[in-house]
Automatic annotation (TrEMBL):
Signal peptide range in chain numbering: 1-20
Keywords: Disulfide bond, Lipoprotein, Receptor, Signal
Pfam families on file: Ldl_recept_a
SMART domains for this protein: LDLa
Claim: ATP-binding is one of the keywords in the record: no
Protein name, as recorded: Low-density lipoprotein receptor-related protein 1-like 8
InterPro entries: LDrepeatLR_classA_rpt
Gene: Lrp1-L8
């Protein structure tokens, strides 16, 4: 009797391990036609038949797995007013708030199922689990109050046109609810009789803007009126004034590798390494070549200017046309 009981307990223990995870490693997913074979998630749609049954290279799956905005295994996630490419696994795991993007929800469901499936065979839950986690009405009502408080300092002011507020001596539309590309942001500004904001290398105007955003605790990323159309002309404001590079306007980025910096002496016509060739791990935007060809001020960079991909989504920052 004891031997029989021991066998039953051993079988139950084995089943609990199997049910806990279909594969040995968290980075793996089970192949479609095999209950014992797994492949790494990063191998999905890499061109190799790692599963043997071709389920990791299924054409309809790969059509949803790959995208034009990011590298393979990555997808664009929009949260907290900014967009970036992150691993698909991370995209599916993000919450509070979850990622917004174009990834087909069946991909996330497949990863939760821990088994490769054809997209047409993936069954989505009919009832959202978060419905049972509590009523979120009070939370959204609090957000509505915060939203209304912000509007008083972002696109409302008695001395400015509709949708504009006073910042220093200028009327700006700090349209923080927006989520558009650089070109769309500029079109939006034109629609409300303005233009994407250019501070035209005026440190007083720039400081007034940054102080205003910090004072009212804005955390949104904004497009501004700066871009690089070609290498010859370099970075220019939409007002056609050349953008002054370096401090005090442009952001500092950190990199994993370091590199020395050089200084030039125009009088002696010489170039030498700065500080005995010390290796620095920070770079100042815009990079050469630039990361992107459109200028933005982001919360991550403490509202210093940075070069960003023009198709990223951020909020429009407009200045009213003087003639209006």
């Amino acid at each position: 009797m004891m031997i029989h009981l021991f066998k039953v307990l051993l079988l139950l223990a084995f089943c609990s391990v199997v049910l806990a995870s279909l594969c040995e490693e968290s980075e793996q997913i089970q192949c479609k036609e095999s209950n014992s074979r797994c492949t790494r998630i990063r191998y999905i749609c890499d061109g190799d038949n790692d599963c043997g049954d071709n389920s990791d290279e299924n054409s309809s799956l790969c059509k949803l797995w790959k995208n034009r905005d990011c590298d393979r295994n990555y997808v664009k996630c929009h949260r907290f007013g900014s967009s970036s490419c992150i691993p698909i696994e991370e995209y599916c795991q993000r919450s509070d708030p979850p990622c917004e993007g174009d990834l087909d929800p069946r991909i996330c469901q497949m990863l939760r199922n821990e088994k490769l499936q054809n997209p047409e065979d993936i069954i989505m839950p009919t009832i959202r689990e978060d419905v049972f986690k509590g009523n979120d009405l009070s939370e959204t009502e609090e957000m509505a109050v915060e939203f209304e408080d912000l509007t008083a300092h972002t696109f409302v002011h008695p001395d400015c046109p509709h949708l504009y507020t006073k910042v220093g001596d200028s009327c700006l539309s700090i349209f923080f609810p927006g989520n558009v590309t650089w070109g769309e942001a500029r079109s939006f500004c034109h629609t409300i009789k303005g233009e994407l904001y250019s501070f035209d290398n005026d440190v007083t105007k720039y400081s007034a803007l940054v102080n205003h955003l910090k004072e009212h605790k804005l955390t949104t990323d904004f497009w501004i009126g700066g871009r690089m159309e070609n290498i010859t002309e370099g970075w220019k404001f939409v007002s056609d004034i050349s953008m002054e590079l370096g401090s005090p306007y442009w952001a500092v980025r950190h990199q994993t590798q370091c590199s020395p910096r050089s200084t030039e002496n125009e009088h002696l016509n010489t170039t030498r390494l700065a500080n005995n060739g010390y290796c620095y791990s920070s770079l100042q935007a815009p990079e050469n070549p630039p990361i992107g060809h459109c200028a933005a001020i982001t919360y991550n960079n403490y509202y210093y200017v940075s070069d960003e991909h023009c198709l990223d989504r951020k909020a429009p920052l407009c200045i009213v046309n003087k003639k209006d």
